[in-house]
Amino acid sequence: MSGHAPEQQPAWQTLSEAAARLGRRPIATLLDDEARNRALTLDAPGMQVDFTRQRLDTAAVETLLDLAQQQGLAAQIEQLFSGVHVNTTEDRPALHTALRAEPAERPADLAAEIGQVFERLSRLAAEIRNGHRRGYTGRAFTDVVHIGIGGSHLGPELVVDALGEPAGGGPRVHFVANIDGAALHAALRTLNPQTTLFVVVSKSFATLETRVNAQSARSWFIERTADPAAVQQHFLAVSANVAAAAEFGIDPALVLPLWDWVGGRFSLWSAVGLPIALCAGPAQFMELLRGARDMDQHFRHTPLGRNAPVLMALSGIWNYNFCGAASHAVLPYARRLRLLPDYLQQLEMESNGKSVHHDGSPVGVHSMPVVWGSEGTNGQHAFHQLLHQGTRAFTADFILIASADHPYADHQRWLLANGLAQSQAMMAGQTADDPHRAVAGDKPTTSIVLPRLDAYSLGALLALYEHKVFCQGVIWNINSFDQWGVELGKRLALPIYDQLGGASAAHQDAATRRLIEHLQRN
Asked: What integer pLDDT is reported at residue 3 of this predicted model?
């Protein structure tokens, strides 16, 4: 994949001039232009996306679209879906969209295998949910412990939490990621080994946190059952390393595959989504994929100027590179989306937290800002003070759900009223004679409205953010699909582990050596 540094494109200078022009104009006054408002309000699968509270006029949007054209965005969108090796540093495609495509639209060399895996996943989930597959004593499974980390954890946990309680008799799902033993202990302390199923998720079956947690879970199980052979009835795996899973004690027939063309943070659409099918049912998992598939079609076939992921990406480029924003707040006004900021932190910052172009040359502009956030209205009583009266430039996404799935209609009205009021306050602010009460306003935000929070809309929402990330990577000319930066800390931890156990730390830097010695003393 070839590309150019974005700041070398003709549109970049024009955008700098537009930012200087619009920086003197309050966002509220831009709302007087109805044609502009219509252009910045988009209907997409499962949602409406409203960019009207962005500091953008039609001229700035057109120039952003010029930048996208100059960086070859339309062609690279097609390359993403066509199996071109867009992951340049690992020389592989990024074909997570093939997992949710219609069977006839999947790459010919992958279609049969993908279909077989989904058939196995659906059958396995149904057998566990209906009690046909049971534990070693013949009792049905009531609880599932999902052991993974990063992309093998954040997506499934988000979806399971968002879709609510187990549906139709599905088991309760407990997620363990952190290598902190307190996490595993909290998950296991009330469980019965006779009715507990473990799902170990690791592409290599060697990820440190997952391997250590899985080994401790297996020890917990064997200690309480005194039956090592029963491991095969209580442990499943999702991995590319069938041999390592078998050595661990998992029946190879109960290992669902992962492929190297599915990156971890894009993997919930694969067999990594097994806990979603276990908790919500296979049909709901397929609805999740259908929502993402419809967003894929919107992204692939809609003109860039009416394309929700594209405009979302370009508004981010505008704010980060031309308007000085260094952080992005994700504010879901839905308790069931409380884990969305955590999920997006990995999706966005691991994908685009890069400092070199595809060819290894330095990136000359800022790339991904810090992503953070929390569920509304909790955040209003925590960090919204900074958003309203602080001095840092930021952007924010407000995510609203029109219809609630609970009987408390008044609560829902108040929740929506608060979400609308907060975005309004960030735009309009208020004047006051007392400077301590003044609120500057003029903060750019986007509002995303889902008609309801179901599997379909959730799938579309997550695909929206995936494609936004890809588009921004194209504009910055960086590889959104590798994550080499996470390897260094993992490698440095290996000798420190031994040194905490008594090995010599003489060759460590002075600060690390002193901390090791302090921890050993205490």
From this structure: 75
